[in-house]
Amino acid sequence: MSEDEIVSLTCPMPHRRDDTVRPAHGGGGRLMHQLIQTIIAPHFGGDAISSGQDSAVFDLAGGRCAFTTDSYVVKPLFFPGGDIGSLAVNGTVNDLSMVGAKPVSLSVGFIIEEGFSLEMLTRIVQRMRAAADSAGVALVTGDTKVVERGKGDGLFINTSGVGCVPDALVIGPDQVRPGDAIILNGDIARHGIAVMIARDGLDFDADIESDTAALNIPVQRLLDAGIDVHCMRDLTRGGLASASVEIAESSGLSLVLDEASIPVRPAVRSACDLLGFDPIHVANEGRFISFVPEAQAEKAVAALNGVPGCEDAVIIGHVTGEAAGHVTMISRIGGTRLVDMLSGEQLPRIC
Amino acid sequence: MSEDEIVSLTCPMPHRRDDTVRPAHGGGGRLMHQLIQTIIAPHFGGDAISSGQDSAVFDLAGGRCAFTTDSYVVKPLFFPGGDIGSLAVNGTVNDLSMVGAKPVSLSVGFIIEEGFSLEMLTRIVQRMRAAADSAGVALVTGDTKVVERGKGDGLFINTSGVGCVPDALVIGPDQVRPGDAIILNGDIARHGIAVMIARDGLDFDADIESDTAALNIPVQRLLDAGIDVHCMRDLTRGGLASASVEIAESSGLSLVLDEASIPVRPAVRSACDLLGFDPIHVANEGRFISFVPEAQAEKAVAALNGVPGCEDAVIIGHVTGEAAGHVTMISRIGGTRLVDMLSGEQLPRIC
Fold it and tell me: Cβ contact (<8 Å) for B63 and A58?
């Protein structure tokens, strides 16, 4: 697809010259996609960008290499189940894992606000190292910048990562086929709700912890089990809804999801009901969907069920032959509705 | 060197538990080195970190790969001779080039403050693309985050980069040998002064433009000329002084620099005199020193002189047999003085 086509296809709301960035431009929904596709992506090059994946894949040093980047601005820096440091490591490991890459090395860029506690920085770096060790990756290069008081917000972290992709492995939205089963590796919406409760000091009875986790192990388990994985996507900003719509639009095929099959813990569902959120729009940091041939679906679920944190992996839908690029949800009472990304912002600074 | 040794050797000013980050922690001088070496580096892994280089070099996909990261917080975003976008591309290209890598792909992470102009963002992304095209690298993957008004400062950009390192090439401080000539590729201190004038609206008669430039072309020219380059370092935050001291300390060898040989344009020298700066401490973004065998020094200078922007390349000093790891400057009037990094902060947010 040419750059012009990307722009013309994905610019339903043209920017005006005097427009400015709004919080929703970072929210993982329609507006963020529009910003990326109209302003940023046209200036990027390479097939990896055009295919709408989180990691670029290209030849380097005689083999295939995956490369990805993410900045982390989560607020607060520590939340139940995680912190900005482990999140920054896991998130980048996961972006590499989603293209089938084995994560090898991460870089770390700190932007620190003047006055930030060195003791807290030390704790965060320790968490990063622990998360890296747990995922089997090395933190190999870094950078530190300091901005004046009031020009940052404590700490922002960028992590970039490189990994190796096996030569024969091709994973991406263009590999999705009609009939493919869609598998989710566990319950959704915990990360977003955990961060929101921590940020706003909401008083819920139940302990809700972020699902933040490295996904390279479950992905490796799928590949080791001989599953012909067609596509994977982690459910971060924008949640299951954005990830599903992205893949439907990129592949040009329609997806049908079965709401009753999607695991949501009771406490998370209560919180979502109270806050007026649909769990499919809430961010996760250790959840992904995979698209696999229907005949291998049960085997894939079994492979995932053996991985700690993925005991509730389950088939949540399938790909139809319809070439509309839509996502439809069959509700608990049997009705159907169209799933879309949020156009605005639900939970700012969730990652 | 073990992690404990790194900490004990480089912690002359131990942090207290209640210490906080100060502007000088980002300034490229002593305090930044202390922060990195006591708090951050002990949690990083790999030889590349220990050797004190800006890029990590490791095996990936069957070949040798270089990997680096830098965040850019320069203020203002546009300055004479450059802007944050081209700076972010050139800076990361340069970190790869300094280990002899051929830069291949860059990632870009934007942290945007709510209210930032989309038109300005567009211009900056255009500058990034132009700089990338000029350096022959591709922008292949990106990320966008938005923070609320007052929690950022317009725009911060992280660029990370990967490149290929030829198998036989080993470049680094441990390759420096007594007798090596030290070559500088042109006049110093323009970037720092240009940014400072733009920031503070100082009224100087002379036009002083940043030296921001990609260094992969001059480096390639050195290698193509058959020069056995032992070590290279770009002169960014902390300037020629920090770069020289870093290499002296890493190599354990002493350097002697000849002040009269170091090119400084008259307008830049006047500005430095007026502001009380020594040009050797001022930041550059297109300057580097290379350490080459004495017998190849003239040939190396000739190779550089043929590259646009490097017409003033010159030998500025040599490595002595003394194992003290010091840098000495022979002044214009023949005296000698010890060169050190600044302990405090000279020009915050210069890159």
Answer: no
